[in-house]
């Protein structure tokens, strides 16, 4: 009796890392991802020898390749163009991900409207699989995004989406969202690993074949990562994250991957009742300029991507009768705030262990980089000593546990932005490098040197 072929039995394979198991499991033993193990069927046949075929286009010297077909086209929104590296490249596929309700659809509807107004190189096609055409029209009326060259389709079948492209022949295609579109040639339900991979692969092939720029909306998990298989981010050319706090109007578009431009750039937007508007100079959103200096406030310069932005730190230190004083932090790294409290108490002899401490940022921004340490420490000391810092002062530097002030990157760019906004003095760590004109920089090697600014202030 012939032996059974063990390789013919069905198996299961992880869609993320390719790890194979004999039976289905909910969590892949290889990459520890949930819900990625799928039935692989019979074992794959042995690889046959590949026969050479005639190339579709002959190879040419790189200097003779035409660049006109690959030049970026402006989307009409300067902040989006900034993140994309000048615009969207024909044939590129961009994936825009973000939390529910952050404004992804509203932003892309505005992109489609601006593209339609330009009327080059063709109309824009907005395909929605999550809402009806009437619901999208209502949003377009509210945001004043109605245009005769903006076409709208409500489809959830991939074949129907491709049919819409053939009928409209757009210059820009927006699909909202990739998790709601289903391919008839793939198994599984919409949003599943197999379906998302099949739909994305088809749309990428369409974009490359016709030179059509495509923007896909993607869902995110509770951890903030793009939902679906990891291969989704590898298939597309650009990955963008749209971020924002529900309690703030500020929205940030962050580039995570970009094959045609910088991958660490950000764009700033503000969500209003009439839609999402770009903010070319967002530093004013993070500052609360007072007519006279106020105790417990300090200004620093953070860097988001390559963009320097001024931010204000506020602190309130007050006495308490509680055995365990409260520590409340908003917009800052609570661990670093605790470190600054310990440094001030140890090296500056400022008693804080019996005080309640509240620290926050202005405008809902998140300030977590070490360059904000010096401003946080000065704001805490200012509130405790009831002495205000000068209103024209910024503080930049990382503070170590020994009380030393360490150098951070991009000090020159940070100070240039501060000088542009009218600040005249700065506290910087040793060896800051070339400094711009228009601002007086004072080198502070340690925390005690920085606190002399407060000692100089009159009660």
Automatic annotation (TrEMBL):
A motif (RadA KNRFG motif) lies at residues 257-261. The gene is radA. ATP binds at residues 98-105. GO terms for cellular component: cytosol. This is DNA repair protein RadA. Belongs to the RecA family. RadA subfamily. One of its GO terms (biological process) is recombinational repair. One of its GO terms (molecular function) is ATP-dependent DNA damage sensor activity. InterPro entries: AAA+_ATPase (IPR003593), DNA_repair_RadA (IPR004504), P-loop_NTPase (IPR027417), RecA_ATP-bd (IPR020588), Ribosomal_Su5_D2-typ_SF (IPR020568), Ribsml_uS5_D2-typ_fold_subgr (IPR014721), Rubredoxin_2 (IPR041166). The middle region has homology to RecA with ATPase motifs including the RadA KNRFG motif, while the C-terminus is homologous to Lon protease. PROSITE patterns: RECA_2. Pfam families: AAA_25 (PF13481), Zn_ribbon_LapB (PF18073). Residues 356-459 are annotated as: Lon-protease-like. The keyword Zinc-finger applies. Keywords: ATP-binding, DNA damage, DNA repair, DNA-binding, Hydrolase, Metal-binding, Nucleotide-binding, Stress response, Zinc, Zinc-finger. DNA-dependent ATPase involved in processing of recombination intermediates, plays a role in repairing DNA breaks. Stimulates the branch migration of RecA-mediated strand transfer reactions, allowing the 3' invading strand to extend heteroduplex DNA faster. Binds ssDNA in the presence of ADP but not other nucleotides, has ATPase activity that is stimulated by ssDNA and various branched DNA structures, but inhibited by SSB. Does not have RecA's homology-searching function. Plays a role in repairing double-strand DNA breaks, probably involving stabilizing or processing branched DNA or blocked replication forks. Residues 69-220 form the RecA family profile domain. It comes from Saccharopolyspora montiporae.
């Amino acid at each position: 009796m012939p032996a059974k072929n063990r390789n013919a039995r069905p198996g299961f394979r992880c869609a993320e890392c390719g790890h194979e198991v004999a039976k289905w499991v909910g969590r892949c033993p290889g990459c520890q991802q949930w819900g990625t193990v799928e039935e692989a069927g019979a074992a794959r046949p042995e690889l046959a020898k590949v026969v050479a075929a005639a190339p579709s286009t002959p190879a040419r010297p790189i200097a003779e390749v035409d660049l006109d077909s690959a030049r970026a086209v402006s989307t009409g929104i300067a902040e989006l163009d900034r993140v994309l590296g000048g615009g969207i490249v024909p044939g590129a596929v961009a994936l825009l991900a973000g939390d529910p309700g952050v404004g992804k659809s509203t932003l892309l509807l505005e992109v489609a409207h601006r593209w339609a107004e330009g009327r080059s190189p063709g109309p824009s096609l907005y395909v929605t699989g999550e809402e009806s055409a009437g619901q999208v029209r209502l949003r377009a009326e509210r945001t004043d995004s109605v245009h005769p060259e903006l076409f709208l389709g409500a489809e959830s079948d991939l074949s129907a989406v491709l049919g819409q492209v053939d009928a409209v022949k757009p210059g820009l295609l927006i699909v909202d969202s990739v998790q709601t579109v289903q391919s008839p040639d793939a198994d599984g339900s919409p949003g599943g690993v197999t379906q998302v991979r099949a739909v994305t692969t088809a749309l990428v092939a369409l974009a490359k074949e016709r030179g059509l720029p495509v923007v896909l909306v993607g869902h995110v998990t509770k951890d903030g990562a793009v939902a679906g298989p990891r291969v989704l981010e590898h298939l597309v050319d650009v990955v963008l994250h749209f971020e924002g706090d529900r309690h703030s109007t500020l929205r940030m578009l962050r580039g995570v991957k970009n094959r045609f431009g910088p991958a660490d750039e950000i764009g700033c937007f503000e969500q209003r009742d009439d839609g999402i508007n770009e903010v070319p100079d967002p530093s004013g959103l993070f500052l609360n300029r007072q007519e006279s200096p106020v105790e417990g406030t300090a200004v620093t310069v953070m860097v988001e991507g390559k963009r320097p932005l001024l931010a204000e730190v506020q602190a309130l230190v007050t006495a308490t009768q509680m055995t365990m004083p409260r520590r409340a932090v908003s917009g800052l790294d609570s661990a670093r705030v605790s470190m600054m409290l310990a440094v001030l108490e140890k090296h500056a002899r400022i008693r804080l262990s019996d005080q309640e401490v509240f620290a926050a940022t202005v405008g809902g921004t998140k300030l977590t980089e070490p360059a904000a340490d010096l401003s946080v420490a000065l704001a805490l000391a200012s509130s405790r000593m009831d002495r205000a810092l000068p209103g024209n002062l910024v503080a930049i530097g990382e503070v170590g546990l020994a009380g030393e002030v360490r150098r951070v990157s991009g000090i020159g760019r940070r100070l240039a932005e501060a000088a542009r906004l009218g600040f005249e003095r700065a506290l910087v760590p040793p060896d800051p490098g070339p400094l711009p004109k228009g601002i007086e920089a004072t080198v502070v090697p340690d925390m005690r040197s920085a606190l002399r600014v407060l000692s100089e202030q009159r009660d």
